Amino acid sequence: MKVGIYTLGCKVNTYESEYVIKCLEENGYEIGNFDDVCDVYIINTCTVTNTSDIKSRKIIRQAKRRNRDACVIAMGCFIQKSKDDLPEEIDIAIGNRDKSKIVQLLDEYFKKHQKMVDVPKTTELNEFDNMHLDKYLSRTRAFVKIQDGCENFCSYCIIPHVRGKCRSKDFNTCLEEINDLVKNGFKEIVLTGIHTGNYGRDLNTDFASLLREIVKIKGLKRIRISSIEATELNEDVLNIIRDNDSIANHLHIPIQAASDEVLKIMNRKYDLDFFIKKIEEIRSIRPDISITTDIIVGHPGETDEVFEKSIDVLKKINFSKLHVFPYSKRDGTKSATMTQIDEQTKKERVHRLLALSRELEIAYFEKFLGKDLDVLFERNRDGYSIGHTSNYLQVKVFESIESGTEKKIRLEKIDYPYIIGKMI
Prior knowledge:
The chain has helices at 11-26, 50-66, 77-81, 102-112, 159-163, 171-183, 207-214, 235-243, 260-266, 272-285, 304-317, 343-366, and strands at 2-7, 30-32, 40-45, 71-76, 92-94, 116-118, 141-148, 167-168, 188-193, 222-225, 250-252, 290-297, 321-326, 372-381, 384-389, 394-397, 406-415, 418-423. The chain is an alpha/beta fold. It has four domains: 2-120, Methylthiotransferase, N-terminal domain (Rossmann fold), CATH 3.40.50.12160; 126-247, Transcription Regulator spoIIAA; 249-366, Transcription Regulator spoIIAA; 372-423, CATH 2.40.50.140. Strand 5 (92-94), helix 4 and strand 6 (116-118) form a beta-alpha-beta unit. The longest helix has 24 residues, at 343-366.
């Protein structure tokens, strides 16, 4: 049987979809393109915004229209949230548990040809859904999901209500999975989770202890942390980053708002003074590190005056890139009940921050012109190759270099969003 898979949302979803593909292939299913006529369609959904819900519903409908006789499986956050109002096109609905049982659920469906709903209450999401990968579609970078769930309850965010409490993958299982991926040729591992830095608190361990063991794995060139909260970059974690070059020279630390007033409304767990001092501490041990961030624009409470001050703060922190998101009202959250900012204002503010992001990014690029850095190449086509440095500079070289190969490259000029380089 032929299966098409469509993944929306975050890196955790990407990892989970990859695991589903592995399970299906091992049981004789053929993995095709989602746009093909398939026997089974799987949509791994997202519900982070109202727009994500709309897109999830749209993709589910498209699958059924493509082949009315196909089995349509929808799983993940949108399904967890919408379990009492599921699209009629769905044949198997899986929430945020039992994705690892996809083959078993398909076997049962094809025996009975009856709709199936496997969506627990969020309060029942208590155990880590163990998944283990030893290969990945990419040949250079592999995600490893080490953690699930979030208990921060930021006022704008629905995720704690659909992913459940924090839970972690078994410590030794994490190390075994990374070892297997490295043995199969992967040079870079990305540690990911819903609240990655919270790892281990349910296992009587912590993120620093896991990092301390991962850096010992032979053959692992780079360890990248997908995203981590400023509050979780404690002394133990920073000491490991300081002492181990294998940890990528890049951290993605969400600020979400560059205003104490808005941070308080958002129910974030820090203020600007704490955040700025933490960035200074990181740069004291890694002066050239790339620090990128997420920022939400137009959250309730962000007045014109607050926004202007926020721009000054972002310039002062001097991130190397801003990932800018217009605030999207998310039904079921506290922020959705507050006075909303009009869409045009949000749009104008987004444009200004995107322009600032480009300015900051180019300024960061310029620091490395004329320098020689290791680049891990990910793809090549039409006579050029593209890869990333440890500090996540995207480098283009006009030579054909095999994916998965690391080369020393001299960085010569900026062709945004790339830096053009040449092999030494």
